[in-house]
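Researcher: Next entry in the queue.
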Amino acid sequence: MKYVIAIIKPHTLEAVKTELEKEEVHLMTVTEVLGCGRQKGITEVYRGVREVDNLLRKVKLEIAVNDNFLEKTIDAITRGAGEGEIGDGKIFVFDLKECIRIRTGERGGQAIG
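Model: Structure for this entry, 113 residues:
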C-alpha cells in the first residue's frame, strides 16, 4: 500500500480528477493549501507599493492506493497537472503501513477502496 501526496496548481484539479477517474482511482482527499517553491511567489503593486507574496495557492491531493494502482495514479496526476511550467507541482510517495476502515474494521488493501 502507498500513500500519494500531490501538490498541484488549483486550475488543474478538474483535469487531474478526470485522469484519475479514467484509471479507476476514485477516492481522494483534496485540501486548499499555500506554498512556495521555485516560482518564488508573485509580485503585485497595491496602492503604488510593490508587494511580494511568496506563498501561492495550491491544491493538495492525498490518495491511498494499493501497490498495483501506484503507477496509474502517478501517471494520471502527471497527465492532468503537467503544463511543462515551473510550479506544475510535486508528487510524494510514502509506504502506507496500515489502513483501517472505521465502519467495518477492514484492514489493509481491502480498506483502501
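Model: The mean pLDDT is 90.
Researcher: Noted, moving on.
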